[in-house]
């Protein structure tokens, strides 16, 4: 899925740890075969190739994943949109370092995205694109979904303490290491993984981070981030990082992107409806600058490192 998964766990022996690790990574590999748009052989890639010309019958798991994705699109009024595949390619953020598309390219892309153009039939478990050129991109939710399914395996095997990470963009903390209240998870400084922005203690919950530092390009002194606003067809501006804690890894993955794309007023409204969640949002236009404080909404505490974005709230 374009990232590296890491697992830390407590077990009674090396043999048991190896067995649990193997089961988790086999599950991630299995989901990669279903949901990755980096693999031409995946079920998602097959749907991308065929669903604009005919109904595609898919397996129950992939269908459930698509239903969940579209539900997030509906809940966020399209701030999260799994159909941004062509938009990501137009801006050069799929297997590339990024470039600014022409207006003609964006006009073409405008006809090739839109979550409302994906039709699901639960009775027949079929997928159909209502417009040609639609391309699904699971980047804003797929890693969290894989984490959640893998944690279910650990729970079923009665693992008491484990930490599973998808390239640090989504992390789930299961239980707690012996003698502690939870897993201490560091949120690295934007653009500098060697330094820590905030440290949180997590237990039976997840944290997801969406930020500009992983994929971006600068043209004419202007920063372009890989996180797209599906409404404007442009990279989001003025936001540099969003981190959110939610009990569900799938939800936190999707929400980190929803909050990134949404306006300040929309973010406030979303978080008011998630009283058990905690989040912080870093605003600004430069990847390295100074800040004074970081405030988590909810019950978490955070602190600022010496180098960060120019504003926080």
Short description:
By secondary structure, the chain is of the alpha+beta class. 31% of the residues lie in helices and 26% in strands.
Features:
alpha+beta; three-stranded antiparallel beta sheet; 313 residues; seven-stranded antiparallel beta sheet; T-fold; disordered C terminus; 16 strands; 31% helix; single chain; 2 domains
The whole-angstrom Rg is 19 Å
CATH class of the largest domain: Alpha Beta
Overall average residue pLDDT: 89
End-to-end Cα distance = 31 Å
Strand count, sense and barrel status of the largest sheet are: 7 strands, antiparallel
CATH architecture heading of the largest domain: Roll
**How much of the residues is beta strand, in percent?**
25-35%
| Weakly predicted, low-confidence segments | 289-294, 301-313
Query: Which sequence of SSEs, written as H and E, runs from N to C?
Result: EHHEHHHEEHEEEEEEEEEEHHEE
């Amino acid at each position: 899925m374009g990232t590296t998964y890491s697992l830390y766990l407590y077990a009674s022996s090396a043999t048991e740890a190896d067995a649990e690790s193997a089961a988790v990574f086999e599950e991630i590999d299995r989901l990669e075969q279903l949901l990755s748009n980096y693999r031409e052989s995946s079920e998602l890639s097959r749907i991308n190739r065929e669903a604009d010309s005919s109904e595609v019958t898919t397996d129950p798991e992939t269908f459930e994943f698509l239903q969940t994705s579209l539900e997030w699109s509906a809940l966020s009024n399209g701030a999260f949109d799994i159909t941004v595949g062509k938009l990501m390619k137009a801006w050069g953020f799929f297997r590339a370092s990024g470039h600014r598309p022409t207006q003609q390219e964006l006009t073409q892309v405008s006809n090739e995205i839109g979550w409302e153009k994906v039709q699901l039939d639960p009775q027949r478990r079929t997928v159909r694109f209502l417009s040609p050129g639609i391309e699904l991109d699971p980047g804003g939710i797929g890693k969290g979904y894989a984490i959640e399914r893998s944690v279910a395996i650990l729970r079923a095997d009665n693992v008491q303490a484990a930490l599973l990470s998808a390239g640090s963009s989504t992390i789930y903390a299961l239980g707690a290491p012996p003698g502690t209240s939870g897993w201490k998870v560091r949120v690295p400084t934007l653009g500098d993984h060697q330094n820590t922005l905030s440290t949180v203690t997590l237990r039976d919950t997840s944290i997801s981070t969406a930020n500009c530092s992983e994929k971006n390009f600068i043209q004419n002194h202007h920063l372009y981030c890989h996180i797209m606003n599906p409404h404007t067809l442009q990279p989001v501006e003025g936001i540099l990082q969003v981190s959110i804690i939610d009990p569900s890894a799938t939800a936190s993955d999707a929400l980190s992107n929803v909050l990134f794309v949404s306006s300040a007023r929309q973010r406030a409204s979303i978080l008011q409806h998630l009283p058990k969640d905690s989040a912080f949002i870093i605003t600004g236009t430069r990847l390295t600058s100074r800040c004074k404080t970081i405030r988590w909404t909810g019950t978490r505490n955070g602190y600022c490192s010496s180098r960060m974005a120019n504003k926080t709230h």
